[in-house]
Amino acid sequence: MGRELTVLSILEDEQEYQSMARSFADKEMAPHMKSWDEQEILPVDVLKKGAELGFGGLYCKEDYGGSALGRLETSIIFEALSTGCVSTTAYISIHNMCAWMIDSFGSESQKSRYLPQLIQMDKLGSYCLTEPGSGSDAASLSTTARKSGGKYILNGSKAFISGGGQSNVYLIMARTGGQGPKGISCFIVDNDMPGISFGKKEHKLGWNSQPTRAVILEDCEVPEENLLGSEGQGFSIAMKGLNGGRTNIASCSLGAAQAAIEAALEHTKVRKQFGQSIASFQNTQFKLADMATSLQASRLLVRQAARLLDAGSPAASVYCAMAKLKATDDCYQICDQALQMHGGYGYLKDYKIQQYYRDSRVHRILEGTNEVMKMIISRDLLVE
Ligand code: FAD
Ligand code: 2MC
Questions:
Q1: Which residues form the Acyl-CoA dehydrogenase/oxidase N-terminal domain (predicted)?
Q2: Does the pLDDT at position 5 exceed 90?
Q3: Which of 16, 216, 299, 312 has its CA 20 to 30 A from that of 255?
Q4: Is there an atom of ligand 2 within 6 Å of 301 CB?
């Protein structure tokens, strides 16, 4: 299958984006994904090459060099890139979310200072919402930002920050007002501002091509012109960023599942047991059919969420939650099934299937756990 089936779901002009991204994934990413994982390398040179094709600011406006694509095209691109390395693509997706937040809510001066380098990926961005004491309950965060003279003084710590220690620009959600979401503001913090430091590099099951660290703020001095949007707008900015983030992460899961099915097809056609190929057993064939159908159903829901984001629909955030829930759960199951079809070989690090399985596992946890996605969907259903 594989590619033919993917192509069926999109229009002709969108195929161009898909084949450009797939060709980049095949040439620049797939041959290295194993070593990036084993050696825990964030391939900054490859990110910069990707930025030349527009991957650094896919849905930023053209004013400062963005690609000005829709979320639908972005989803197609992240899916295709993920077939070459899920973890690296997911990092690119977080970077894109940060660039979009500055593009959408920044002043002209913030945009002109940060966007050109972010979009070129000469500088990398990280998104900092989670704290040790506030994960799913993000609005309870306790990092503070106190105004003093022409500066804000930030104190607190952020947990699990993707790109932490390696990124240059951190979008930090901190409390400038009272309890709850309305007391939160968003700051653009450079890695060399006084008072920012980073924790140890976390050891992870997957997503190893990108570092994850705590970001520690001790009387961190941030110029007041680095407040993004207005005081109290930070939670809303963070959530709007995450709507796109969730379709992006869901798209990365689509890519993992697509690659897993391709690997399963390759393996089961060649591997023989009981005198015939594994692919000739009806159990294998039916499983493959279920996997392809499940991938396609996830894909349609992700593309629908992306379309609603593009249309500015009020239903978009719920669809983004549905797409993230469905695609990250189902695509992880597809990776698991594909690993099973490899038998013992699937469990060996010599075979790439285990990396898709490991890398896609965390998509059910981050950018809002899938239980939080169910909370968002059910709240909408039950609203009076
Ligand atoms: P908790 O909130 O403690 O949840 C634990 C369990 O309880 C989960 O299963 C959860 O679904 C469940 N639960 C919680 N509340 C409810 C409820 N009301 N109803 C039902 N079940 C509930 N964060 C960032 O800000 N920036 C990043 O770049 C970033 N990168 C990450 C990278 C990695 C590799 C990982 C693992 C995490 C990253 N995160 C990042 C953090 C991630 O968003 C959080 O881990 C996630 O939101 C869950 O928070 P938590 O880990 O505190 O779990
Ligand atoms: N889009 C737009 N606005 C949103 C929104 C969304 N998806 N979610 C919430 N809001 C708004 C909401 O409309 C409300 O605004 P207003 O008061 O003007 O009506 C405000 O935000 C507060 O929302 P709630 O009243 O729903 O707040 P509550 O605290 O009950 O729940 C919840 C919010 C659980 C949905 C939010 O805390 C959440 O999404 N938690 C998960 C945290 C998360 O996703 N973390 C990811 C970190 S990043 C990461 O993992 C990476 C790898 C980068």
A1: 12-121
A2: no
A3: 312
A4: no
pLDDT one-digit tens code per residue, 344-358:
999 999 999 999 999
Does residue 160 have its Cβ closer than 6 Å to ligand 1? yes
204 C-alpha to center of ligand 1: Å?
15
Looking at residue 134, the DSSP 8-state letter turns out to be B
Domain ranges in the chain with CATH number 1.20.140.10? 236-382
Q: 129 to each of 144, 220, 234, how far by Cα in Å?
A: 12, 16, 10
ipTM confidence: 0.99
Report H helices in 25-161: 33-39, 44-52, 71-82, 86-105, 108-119
The bound ligand whose nearest atom lies closest to the alpha carbon of 186 is 1
Tell me the backbone φ, ψ of residue 99, rounded to 5 degrees: -60, -40
**Which of residues 14 and 78 earns the better pLDDT score?**
78
For the CA of 98, the nearest ligand: 2
Q: Return phi, psi of residue 121, to 5°.
A: 60, 30
Overall CATH class of domain 236-382: mainly alpha
162 has a pLDDT exceeding 50: yes
Confidence of residue 8 (pLDDT cuts 50, 70, 90): very low
Pick the CATH number of 3-119 from 3.20.20.370, 3.40.50.1100, 1.10.540.10, 3.40.50.1000: 1.10.540.10
Closest residue by Cα to residue 144 from 157, 132, 127: 157
For ligand 1, whether the C-beta of 353 sits within 6 Å is: no
Instruction: Please check the confidence at residue 92 and state whether its pLDDT lies above 50.
Output: yes
Tell me the CATH number for domain 125-230. Answer: 2.40.110.10
Alpha helices by DSSP H, listed for 218-350, are 234-270, 282-310, 316-341
